């Protein structure tokens, strides 16, 4: 890369460091925006936007609006990926931040069902859709930007971008934890809105940082060779369909786990087991904090041993822990609950999510990399991420116990294991041109 771009080694390292920092900061803000909705759906939306339902049915309705964001993600991935492969990675990263920030802030301003009736959940769904469009192009743009700057250490540098997810989890869950300390009436009146309002300040900071990003050398080379495609999304589906399907399979377990461990366990512990909200919220925050170390470790190990080795290890651990996770939650003991969430997040999600930032871009050529990574990751997110809390809640209602949810987790993991075995090892090779 240095020879191609004419940069000195020191300048290139400085550029890479700035790209990683700007991408990680922006991704953390975007994940915060997206995840506070999930926590709010688990704690308050059933009361404020669906109050005419039975509480459990209201929770299902709230999770249905949560899933809307994931349905929007492939659409956002296709649209933003298209323009990211045509006009550059930087422009789209700035655009996604604006879309997410405005959508999140406006959710915090919404009147409730008691104030405007059915228009309240309708507007909630529309703004959730806007959030999904923004995130659909955000993560893939950030990891493509880093992968195209990072050289041979793509696994490690990419995993630093992934820290944005636990930062978002810790920040969104932590701020809601603080707000739940308010009297119940104050929390339901204005306290739940504060996390959404904070977003506008964070987005302003991220916007300024991202404006200073440099476009990637690999995309510049595509422009200089006049090889920019008119329809990169169609090219992915026509010529890179095998990589596209592998990207979906590789991702379904990780993204499903992410939202089961950060959203569904909150509902399971509070509504099913009667555990105090603060106990389970603290457990999720502690698990996210541990991922600050385990995600870069997993990315670094994937540079040494390959992406597939880490993915297979994460898949096997997921199968092994699918039942013990709920056994520990069922004890209702705060220490054991925290231990279960932390260990499960570390040995399953971290091993899969850390190398993912390198694995996804590595599957696709430069001309379609943004579109391919966006479509693969976001179609998987729509299939397993957005619907996982809804499916798990429905399974729990049907069986009255957690064993079907454990089997669901195992089924997702088997898909990822099979896809990983079929995928090429990409850690040793340069990015596809």
From TrEMBL:
Residues spanning the membrane: 31-50, 56-80, 92-113, 119-144, 156-178, 190-211, 244-271, 283-302, 309-329, 335-354, 375-399, 405-423
Keywords carried by this UniProt record: Cell membrane, Membrane, Transmembrane, Transmembrane helix, Transport
Organism of origin: Bradyrhizobium guangzhouense
Entries under SUPFAM superfamilies matching the protein: MFS general substrate transporter
Stretches assigned to the Major facilitator superfamily (MFS) profile domain: 19-428
UniProt name for this protein: MFS transporter
InterPro entries (UniProt xref): MFS (IPR011701), MFS_dom (IPR020846), MFS_trans_sf (IPR036259), Sugar_transporter_CS (IPR005829)
Family matches, as PROSITE patterns: MFS, SUGAR_TRANSPORT_1
Membrane topology type: Multi-pass membrane protein
Intracellular or extracellular location(s): Cell membrane
